[in-house]
Write a structure and sequence with these properties.
Elements lengths: L8 H8 L4 E2 L6 E2 H24 L7 H20 L7 H17 L7 H14 L16 H34 L7 H45 L3 H38 L8
C-alpha cells in the first residue's frame, strides 16, 4: 500500500505509528486513544445495559446466553484466585476483560481502513494535508492507556492493603517481610533490605501489567503494518494466518491482565499472621 500512496516504507510505518495529538510534552493528549477507549467503553456499557434490561429468567436468547456464558466464565476464574468477600472484584474483573478485549479487537480491522477514512475527511472537510492526519485505532497500542489501566489497579492495591491491614500493619509489612528477624536488633538490620525488596515488588506489578499488554499489542500492530506493505497477492494469505493467531493473542492478553489484577488485589487483601492482632 505504501507503493500506491507514493510514500516510502519508512514514511508509511511512521505515519501508522503516529498519534493524533494535541498539546506539547507532558500535557499532550492522544485524542485517538481517548476517542476509541471512551467510545468503546460507552458502547459496551449501553450494550450490556440493554442486555440486562431485556434479560429473561426463562429460556435465554442466543445473545443473552452468550453474555451469561462469558460472565459465568469470568466469575468462575475470579473465584479460583480471590477468596475474600468483596462485591467490587467480580464486576471489576468483568469490566477489565471485556473492555481490554474490545480495544484489542480493533487490531482486527484492516490496518488502513479507518486511517484512510480519517485522511479523506481531513482533506475534504477540513482542508488538511492527508499525510498530516494521524489516527491510531487500537488504544492498547498506546503505553499511556496501558499504564493508565495498571495505575488504576495499583491504586486499588494500595487502598485495600491499607484497609485490610491498617496503615501501621501495611508499614510494618514493608519493614519485616519477607525477612523476619528473631529479635528487634536483627529486624532493624534487615529492615532496609525488606523495604527495598517491597518497593521493587510493589512497583513491578503495575509495570508488568502495562508493559506486557502494550508490548504484545504493539508487536501485533507492527506485523500488520509490515504485511500491509507487501504486494496484494502476499497480503491475503499472511493476513488471514496472522489475524487468526492474533485473535488468540488479544484474548489471552485481556485474560492475563484481568487475572493478574485479581491476583494482585487478592494479595492486597491477605493479612499475615503477624499483622492480624
Amino acid at each position: 500500500m505504501s507503493e500506491t500512496s507514493g510514500i516510502t516504507p519508512t514514511q508509511y510505518i511512521h505515519h501508522h505509528l503516529s498519534y493524533w495529538t494535541v498539546g506539547q510534552g507532558f500535557w499532550s493528549l492522544n485524542l485517538d486513544t481517548l476517542l476509541f477507549s471512551i467510545g468503546l467503553g460507552t458502547v459496551l456499557f449501553l450494550v450490556l445495559l440493554f442486555t440486562a434490561r431485556r434479560a429473561t429468567s426463562g429460556v435465554p436468547g442466543k445473545w443473552q446466553g452468550f453474555v451469561e456464558f462469558i460472565l459465568g466464565w469470568i466469575h468462575d476464574n475470579v473465584k479460583q484466585v480471590f477468596h475474600f468477600e468483596n462485591p467490587l472484584i467480580a464486576p471489576l474483573a468483568i469490566t477489565i476483560f471485556i473492555w481490554i478485549w474490545t480495544m484489542n479487537f480493533m487490531d482486527m480491522l484492516p490496518v488502513d481502513l479507518l486511517p484512510r477514512i480519517a485522511q479523506f475527511v481531513g482533506f475534504h472537510v477540513f482542508g488538511k494535508d492527508p499525510e498530516l492526519v494521524y489516527l491510531k485505532i487500537v488504544p492498547t497500542n498506546d503505553m499511556n492507556m496501558t499504564f493508565g489501566l495498571s495505575l488504576g489497579v495499583f491504586v486499588l492495591m494500595i487502598y485495600y492493603s491499607i484497609k485490610m491491614k491498617g496503615a501501621f500493619g501495611y508499614g510494618k509489612e514493608f519493614l519485616t517481610h519477607p525477612f523476619e528477624g528473631p529479635n528487634l536488633v536483627v529486624k532493624i538490620v534487615l529492615a532496609p533490605f525488606n523495604v527495598l525488596m517491597n518497593i521493587v515488588e510493589t512497583l513491578s506489578k503495575p509495570l508488568s501489567l502495562s508493559l506486557r499488554l502494550f508490548g504484545n499489542m504493539f508487536a501485533g500492530e507492527i506485523l500488520f503494518i509490515l504485511i500491509a506493505m507487501l504486494p496484494w497477492w502476499g497480503q491475503w494469505p499472511l493476513s488471514f494466518v496472522w489475524t487468526a493467531f492474533h485473535l488468540l493473542v488479544i484474548t489471552i492478553q485481556a485474560f492475563v491482565f484481568m487475572m493478574l489484577s485479581v491476583v494482585y488485589l487478592s494479595m492486597a487483601h491477605t493479612v499475615h499472621d503477624s499483622h492480624s492482632h
